[in-house]
């Protein structure tokens, strides 16, 4: 970068600046400040998810996983989740934590962690036409709804009973609502959804009630892109 | 006004020339001695007026949400300026650049820097830096060059403005102003990240602006420009920026260190915070470094350590005083801007002014767009179009460019008045038009598909449900993970800095213990009064008759909907509470408290339930052991519970209470409380037996009561797995029992328990060592 003459110093300054910029294009994949975490385990083979989640996201979430894992044994327990302060003041915190743990287990490894999170990937338009024959991706609308349904349905009988609904309502609502009021709200909710008259919400009814709600957007997290 | 002042001055001079002695005789009480008090009087009047204006705005509660306060204040200033101008036929006092830079600007920047979320800031530091440096350069050079192009067109009569002057003008008008940005962003709710980006950019670009401004100004005054000067200019930028930051950090550490020793004189603790930060600002200005960066870095450094050293009252004082100062400053700045606008300082040129405005907007939008495309490659969370729009549209100009333009030396800038006019027009446009319209535009961009049909009662529930779930999962994902440098810094911090700068072993101040007592009492009360419904057992539901749902009338539905809207918990607000008017978010505090208490209660309930369950089931091998104890059976629970406390208090309760109090802004207090608790509980190992005996004797003193709530944050008992967690308890107590009280106990039969996973036991082991 030899400058000759002083006739046009600013042009040269401009040239210098412009020359630097293309160099930065070549540095793709570099960690820039804190936006991309350093991948400690470069050879994460999660081919199971390779079609669902991008590699950079996997590394980032792995960093998060390890930072949550205080015991450093490669799995998370419920206490690890409860250590997240924002989750502590989330009304549905316990249910959400529970959703990460498969049936009857107390620890979740990274695969399980990612599996749950994969439900929240945004639905891409170009994915819709991609793979009609393969298994339904975890972040399909139906699977998202299923995930939400499981948060209600504790006893796993594929029905949200009035009791279960009441539990969730109670968690989401302040102390100023009496039990009777809450009961009537729960009744009303069931009534609006129930079609086969069993006073419980089955999964199909759940889906039907929410057909106008933009579930794809509500249950998608942008940075799981 | 100024006229009368001058007259009085002359009069008083004559008087004082006569020997500075009052004329003998009765003192003239009715006479005005204005010049004696002129300066403080005027200052007080200005500030009073500003504050009264603020009160006036908030009387009509809708007004501040539509029109940002900055606009209203400028209007008031314009009014005042008009009055003064009309009364005296001369220009009102122009805001002194010195006054602005030395007195009015530092409090605002200090306030912003002190409450800046450091983590988020450093997360996005690369992007902020990118926008601030490259963006400002882009804007400055772009505006300057295009304006030069316009000036070349002889039809506009601007040909005497040289390229350098245009570049200088470009550099000072491209400065995005933190004051204006803050004032406007108060209204709109953007996500944290966006807020940090725009605000961080406005803070950082001060360094660039200062360098460019001085660079071009000196170039304008130089005959020839050598290449070396350009490089010197670039190097200057780094020196200015980094130097300012270093000064700030240094003084921040000194401030933290000082507060370590102030426990005897609590009253002047807040003073140190303000003095040191102001010192950093003027020291940096003295060396021609960037004062804004100095004060920001000083505030961010001080924040962490000072909070832990000062008393609760001092902490509150600091916060309130800072808010007050910054509020006053901001108000004064805007009013002065309004006042200074009126007058004879202007020269209007349609072409120059309108093209300036146009280029400002175009270059900003272009700059943001292009830069975002580049930086998105490196970001894991790419910026969407909406984000870019807000960044571009939120680049407001304010008092900084205003003051900078007044600082231009008129000798070098014969067309200074033209510049002033252009700057004022741009500022007014950005503050008024962009400030008022940004909110509706943001909302417009947000609306995806509005289905405004008849909303069902349940819809609100479902929507809120989804929002909570999404927020929860987002929190699990976190916005950050490990970062090499941050971890290194944390280690360094813990090892050296904290030890040096934070005072340990502070005696519990009365406030702290009072808080602790109240918190615990409140928790117990809420739990006991049954306001929180227990997990409904199947028994209570047996009296629900099926098929009795009757259709509701519309009014009843409305009622329900209203009840829900009022009572459903809000989602955790992610936006900053950068409110000039209030400090804490009290509604969400209350909500957070309720949720926490309820969760603790339900956890405690389920713990109790599992205990009672397992006690009734002799099949579980563990219970046999406990039942076989000759002494009272309540003991193992206490034993186990206390062990759980001590082994777990480091983890969950720390974070749990920490969480609550993080939200409640009392984190350092809670940390201290928990540390003390832990210390207290970990200490008495040899006394363990003694304590135990005390417990056995049934003396339920405050000790037991106090510890009980502290056991509330239990590790979560899964809804379906009470048995699995029990072996852990069993392991602990068995080891303890056999360790401490070998003889009288029958040795427990070897038991087959489902082993907790290997990692789990390994994790327990080291924690068990002290016992």
TrEMBL record, chain B:
InterPro entries: Cation/H_exchanger_CPA1, Cation/H_exchanger_TM, NaH_exchanger, NHE-2/4, NHE_CaM-bd. Residues 47-443 form the Cation/H+ exchanger transmembrane domain. Residues 534-642 form the Sodium/hydrogen exchanger regulatory region domain. Residues 606-618, 690-706, 733-743, 760-771 have a biased composition (Basic and acidic residues). It is a multi-pass membrane protein. One of its GO terms (molecular function) is sodium:proton antiporter activity. GO terms for cellular component: apical plasma membrane. It comes from the Eukaryota. Gene3D superfamilies: 6.10.140.1330, 6.10.250.1040, 6.10.250.2020. Keywords: Antiport, Cell membrane, Ion transport, Membrane, Sodium, Sodium transport, Transmembrane, Transmembrane helix, Transport. Belongs to the monovalent cation:proton antiporter 1 (CPA1) transporter (TC 2.A.36) family. NCBIfam families: b_cpa1 (TIGR00840). This is Sodium/hydrogen exchanger. It comes from Cyanistes caeruleus. The lineage of its organism: Eukaryota, Metazoa, Chordata, Craniata, Vertebrata.
